[in-house]
Amino acid sequence: MSASVGIRASGSIRLGAGLALALGVALLTAACSSSGSSSSSAPASSAGSAGSTAAAAGSGSGLVITTKSGSAGAFLADGSGRAVYLWMKDGKDSSACSGACAGAWPPVTTTGAVTASGSAVTADLSTITRSGGAKQVVYDGHPLYYFSGDSGPGQVSGQGSDGFGAKWWLVAPAGTPITAAVTVSPAGTTPASASASPTGGGRY
Q1: How many Cβ atoms sit within 10 Å of the Cβ of residue 112?
Q2: Which of 9, 12, 102, 137 could form a disulfide with 108, with the two C-beta atoms 3.0–4.6 Å apart?
Q3: How many angstroms from the chain centroid is the CA of residue 78?
Q4: What is the mean pLDDT of residues 174-190?
Q5: What DSSP designation does 6 have?
Q6: Alpha carbon separation from 196 to 16, 67, 203 (Å, rounded)
Q7: For the chain, the helix, strand and coil percentages under 3-state DSSP, each to the nearest 5
C-alpha cells in the first residue's frame, strides 16, 4: 500500500514538473515572439517617418517674379511686391556675393519652379546653385538679391548702393540695370510726372 502511494506520488511529481516545464517553454516562446515583432516594427515606423520628412523637404513652393512701377519705369519684384536687385560684380549666371554680403543682400531663392508675371519675361528666368545648395533665381544672367534695408513691398532703398565693392541696381524687365534714382508712389504706380523709360547699362 505504501509502495503504491509512493509510486503515485512520484508520478504526480513527474507530471507536475512536466507541466511546469511545458508552461515555461510556452511563456518563453510568447515573450520572444512579442519582442521580435516589436523590434521589427520599429524600423518600419522609422522608414515611414524618414519618407515623410523627405516628402516634406521636396514639396517646396515656387516663386513669382513680377514687375512694379517707379519713377524710372518698371522694375522687377517678387510676388509680394518686394524689389529685387542685381550686383555689378557678379558674372553671367554666377554669384560673387557670400558671407557678410549675402547677409546684407539675401539671394532670391526658391525651392520650386520660378514663374514670370507682369512685364517679366519667362524665358529670362533660370536658377543657379549656390555653394550651400540653395537655388538662386537668375534673370537674363543676373543673380537676383533682396536688400535687407528694405522694410517691405515698395521699398527701394538699396538702389545705387555700392556696398561690397560694386553697384547694386534695380532690374528692368529687359534685363538691364536701372541706374536712375527711383521713387515709388504708395500705390506702386508710376507718378504722372515721372519718366517711364529705364536707363542703365546693357545686358550680359
Answers
A1: 12
A2: 137
A3: 16
A4: 82
A5: H
A6: 104, 13, 19
A7: 35, 20, 45
